[in-house]
């Protein structure tokens, strides 16, 4: 139950015995769980989960998913009640053939009231493509701009230093203008596989640079999956104190099995926006086949179900979400990493 909702504030007050004042003797008394759900509906979603299956979940898939199947999945995802959905990337078609159909995917997804469709834009040409799509009548409502918190990862990901990358991001923000909601993402915010642990001061520096560009939605990404709940609470609490007007977004990988725990720690530290992917997708299936193990995103189904059990409203239809998770498994032709999807299976006991 949200901390500012007391039992006395629940619809109708707390149920009393039949015949007590205010409770007709023959009226069915709602169960406490029903009261909690009614309170959550009245308050609206307390957390916003952005579903990233269609972009972050598919980016390492070796087989190209046909455009019509992506659109069908995105439609199912939207019908679960998501308010933010990552749809595609305007990435180099040669390097990222999975997203060569970015314009076609967006064109097939009509706008939905209260829903923002996001596209990743890794460079200035990508922003120009997003603008062109907007001019043709169907661009994304939101675009993501990414930097790395370490020099080593900046060189590996973008082929340039952090300073040069920030020049690119500044150009991208100027190109975008007021055509989109801009989201800045800071990768390797906890540890870099090349440069090692990242100082919190570095993350704050990168976040403040985004704010200076007018970007106050900032994603904190645990790219290596090495964060722990105490580190998450410390970093998020510190950033909130330094930047009280910024909207922070948690994006945690689950390679070491800590994704859910880190999301809860982020929630406890004040974050209300989360990036996740159906089935914990986002890893490289070839690595798994060779014993590398899963390194995907935090599972949407599992986090949504945990929040529900905690009394935290997500605004999502959990049964529809579980069915969508099973559809993702059918689409990719393998069992994914969601535990919530398995609930009720005979093999689960």
In terms of DSSP E residues, the strand content is 5-15%
Q: What shape does the CA trace take?
A: globular
Overall tally of structural domains: 2
- Tally of DSSP β-strands: 10
Structural class: alpha/beta
Mean pLDDT: 87
Could you give me the name of the CATH homologous superfamily of the largest domain?
Answer: Aldolase class I
Task: Return the CATH architecture of the largest domain.
Answer: Alpha-Beta Barrel
Backbone CA Rg? 21 Å
Distance between the termini: 29 Å
Strand order of the largest sheet: 1-2-3-4-5-8-9-10
Taking the sheet with the most strands, its summary is: 8 strands, parallel, barrel
**With helices defined by DSSP (H or I, 4 residues minimum), what is the helix count?**
13
User: CATH topology of the largest domain, anyone?
Assistant: TIM Barrel
Uncertain ranges: 1-27, 29-43
CATH top-level class of the largest domain: Alpha Beta
Helical residues, percent: 25-40%
> What sequence of helices (H) and strands (E) makes up the elements?
HEHHEHEHEHHEEEHEHEHEHHH
